[in-house]
């Protein structure tokens, strides 16, 4: 994995925070570490690479991000293995997904080696913040925003690339027990030709209303359908989805409006390695109903950096409730175990998914 050769300045905090004690319920994104990393882009180049104390950002009120929403982010994790070895899971994947998003949003991508070096430098500085408990990790949030101040509608010529860190536990408050999902039939997350396939902040803005309405009714997340037929399954707010049928495991094929998830890619890789019949194809709610009626819809789970592998216990589509298998010897448990064993170093990293930091 190529980390760059950029020179970072370091300003240490004079006011270090106390770290959450072991066994604190970390939740997701509640705690932040002492420092962030940042680089600026202007006059056609990236410069002023720095690690500085966590503090407010100062920006022109006319900055492009505030008005025209040029904002992209990434999410990945660092883990503490035995002997205090710290590893970052697949940083190259996230670097290239951000670069792809930059094309779609006409933004200036940080070079991949700068992206990876930034993560490595910042996590090294904050290595004591990587939690020790199994299931916990240091979540890494690289973010890119257009900072140039102007009001004519056009892409920004100036950018800020910054990364912050948050020690996290389980994404869902129920600690990887199963989740309840509402199939959204009124609002849409993304349309063909739109932004769905990139990690644009705008996609999350458009998903918040439906997700919070359903949260009030006791659902953890919504499952998004395609914008045209409202029958094809796309993804959940923060996860890609897999369906386990009697003779086939299916995940929706990437159709230009689904975010290509990193964990989705790992799961496909493992299932193929295990010689299980997995397909990336179109899957509709109508097919799901038929499979369920035949007793052949066995399991559903979501995949994502934050959610890892999260089984779906209940899926509500209009007035029909799917009750799904979540206990015992499920495929989702087998995948969860395999991926987390690689992340925490219990089994060899046979796919070169981990980038180890120097001590
Ligand atoms: C909309 C959406 N889909 C899918 C995913 C899963 O992507 P990844 O596995 O790269 O975390 C995420 C999570 O980050 C997401 O926000």
Concise structural overview:
With 359 residues, the protein is an alpha+beta fold. The protein has two domains: 9-169, D-amino Acid Aminotransferase, Chain A, domain 1, CATH 3.30.470; 179-343, D-amino Acid Aminotransferase, Chain A, domain 2. Helices cover 23% and strands 29% of the residues.
The CATH class of the largest domain turns out to be Alpha Beta
Q: Largest sheet, if any? A: 9 strands, mixed
Going by CATH, what is the homologous superfamily of the largest domain?
D-amino Acid Aminotransferase, subunit A, domain 2
How many distinct helices?
A: 7
Query: Averaging pLDDT over every residue, what do you get?
Result: 95
Quaternary structure: single chain
Q: How are the SSEs ordered, and which strands pair?
A:
Blueprint: E1 9-10, E2 35-42, E3 45-53, H1 64-68, E4 71-73, E5 76-80, E6 86-89, H2 91-104, H3 112-125, E7 137-146, E8 159-168, E9 179-183, H4 201-216, E10 221-225, E11 233-236, E12 240-245, E13 249-252, H5 262-273, E14 278-281, H6 285-293, E15 297-304, E16 308-317, E17 320-323, H7 331-343, E18 354-356
Parallel strand pairs: 1-3, 9-10, 9-16, 13-14
Antiparallel strand pairs: 2-3, 2-8, 4-7, 5-6, 5-7, 6-18, 7-8, 10-11, 12-13, 12-15, 15-16, 16-17
Helix pairs in contact: 2-3
Pyridoxal-5'-phosphate (PLP) binds at residues 75, 235, 237-240, 259, 261-264, 303-305.
């Amino acid at each position: 994995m190529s980390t760059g050769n950029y020179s970072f300045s370091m300003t240490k905090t004079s006011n270090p925070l106390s770290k959450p004690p072991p066994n604190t319920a970390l939740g997701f994104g509640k705690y932040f570490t002492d420092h962030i990393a940042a680089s600026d882009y202007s006059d056609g180049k990236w410069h002023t690479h720095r690690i500085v104390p966590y503090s407010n950002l100062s920006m022109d009120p006319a900055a492009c991000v505030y008005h025209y929403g040029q904002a992209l982010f990434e999410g990945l994790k660092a883990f503490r293995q035995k002997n205090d070895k710290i590893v970052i899971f697949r940083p190259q994947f996230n670097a290239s997904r951000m670069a792809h998003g930059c094309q779609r949003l006409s933004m200036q991508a940080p070079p991949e080696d700068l992206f990876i070096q930034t993560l490595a430098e910042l996590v090294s500085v904050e290595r004591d913040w990587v939690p020790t408990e199994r299931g916990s990790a240091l979540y890494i949030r690289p973010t890119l925003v257009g900072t140039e101040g102007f009001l004519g509608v056009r892409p920004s010529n100036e950018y800020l690339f910054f990364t912050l860190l948050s020690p996290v536990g389980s994404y869902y408050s129920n600690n990887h027990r199963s989740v309840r999902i509402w199939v959204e039939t009124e609002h849409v997350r993304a349309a063909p030709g739109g932004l769905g396939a990139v990690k644009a902040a705008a996609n999350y803005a458009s998903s918040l209303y439906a997700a919070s309405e359903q949260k009030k009714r006791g659902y953890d997340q919504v499952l998004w359908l395609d914008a045209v037929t409202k029958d094809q399954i796309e993804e959940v707010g923060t996860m890609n989805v897999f369906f386990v049928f009697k003779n086939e495991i299916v995940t929706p094929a990437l159709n230009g409006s689904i975010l290509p998830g990193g964990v989705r890619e790992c799961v496909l890789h493992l299932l193929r390695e295990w010689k299980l019949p997995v397909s990336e194809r179109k899957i509709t709610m109508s097919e799901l109903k038929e499979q369920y009626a035949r007793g052949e819809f066995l399991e559903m789970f979501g995949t994502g950096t934050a959610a890892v592998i999260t089984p779906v216990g209940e899926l509500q589509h209009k007035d029909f409730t799917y009750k799904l298998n979540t206990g015992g010897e499920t495929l989702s448990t087998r995948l969860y175990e395999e991926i987390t064993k690689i992340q925490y170093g219990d089994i060899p990293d046979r796919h070169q998914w981990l980038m180890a930091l120097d001590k």
